[in-house]
Amino acid sequence: MTSVSLWRPSGRSATRLIFALGGIVLGAWAPLVPVVKQRLGVDEGTLGLLLLCMGVGSILAMPLTAYLTSRYGCRQVISVSAAGLCFVLPLLATGGTVWLLALTLVGFGMVMGCTSVAMNLQAVLVERAEGTALMSGFHAMFSLGGIIGSGAVAGLLALGVTPLAASVAVSVVMAGLLLLARPGLLERSEDGGAKSPAIVIPQGVVIAIGVLSLLAMLAEGGVLDWGALFMIEAHNADLGLAGFAYTAFAITMTIGRLMGDRLRTTFGDLKMLIGSASLATLGFLASLFLPTAIAALAGFLLVGAGISNIAPILFTLTGKTKRMPANLAVASVLTVGYVGIIAGPAAIGLIAHATSLKTAFLLLCGAMVVIAVSARAIHSRV
């Protein structure tokens, strides 16, 4: 008997492990981006197009994952897609041509998109079965995984380890997490294997939830890609201080998710959704209108805390809707929301070019207001 079979994780523990795995692989990819740029000798524009390939792969795979989970269950789909992540990560560190890397990034995006939908469906079903708030904690594991993955690869590269060896080491760790988690993953989704359409089209309130998810992910991507430049342009921050914009955001987002399930149990999802969006709104307003760079940095702390539990709550609401089966609804919401991550930073850039970056961030603030104002109506229709 192997050591893996001696311990059978609960659905809750298995879901946490898979969310951590997803965060680790995305975190591990981040320090490899400059390595790839240097190896291929491409400019920023070409690199941007390459990174877009990953998003395209995810968008292609996410709608199909509803069908796959319906037919094969979360356990089989996550096992195959997460194993794909373990396999593809080292390929990202070795691709020798632009076209080869582009194809690899499409594949990476597809297995990442498939894993994302299946693990969030697993999370919805486990939370529903246990009858208590768990989603924020699952997403906190994703955030922690990102910190671990990026820190591990960056540290190994700093020690002189080759990119291939560093990525292989991370893949081995991820494979171990997958083996530990697999026995606790759900064999079937809620429909017991009933046929699902190959292409998912959101319906009813699921469309509205998807739009709110898009707005939340748009704000998250905006801070990630444009936060430092915003600090420089709007507050004349030096480069060192500006770099802490996303760091502040990420720290409070992770803390907020770690505390989120307890807060949701205490206050309820509706109050938490309104309060979270309102807090993020306050944070954006502080970063926009307070006069100093330090005060703006404090604003990003509030934005991270506010946004931290919006997506988890929206996924919980997605799982409760009767308009669509959970596997279809989760795939729909993730697909719509992911457009915010892919297209959002580019849209912010266009708006900033036409007006100013401060105007673009004011629109992100408006997105948080939309979530706060819409929350009650959407919650009542679930």
Looking at this protein, list some descriptive labels.
single chain, 382 residues, Growth Hormone, Chain: A, 2 domains
Plain-language structure description:
The chain is an all-alpha fold and 382 residues long. It folds into two domains: 6-184, MFS general substrate transporter like domains (Growth Hormone, Chain: A, Up-down Bundle), CATH 1.20.1250; 205-381, MFS general substrate transporter like domains (Growth Hormone, Chain: A, Up-down Bundle), CATH 1.20.1250.20. It is 84% helix and 0% strand. It has 14 helices and no strands. α3 runs antiparallel to α13 (326-354), α4 crosses α12 and α13 packs antiparallel against α14 (357-381). The chain is globular and about 55 Å long. Mean pLDDT is 87; it is low at 1-5.
Helix/strand structural class: mainly alpha
SS strand fraction: under 5%
Shape: globular
Name of the CATH first level of the largest domain? Mainly Alpha
Distance between the termini: 46 Å
* Overall tally of structural domains: 2
Residue share in helices?
A: over 70%
The SSE order reads: HHHHHHHHHHHHHH
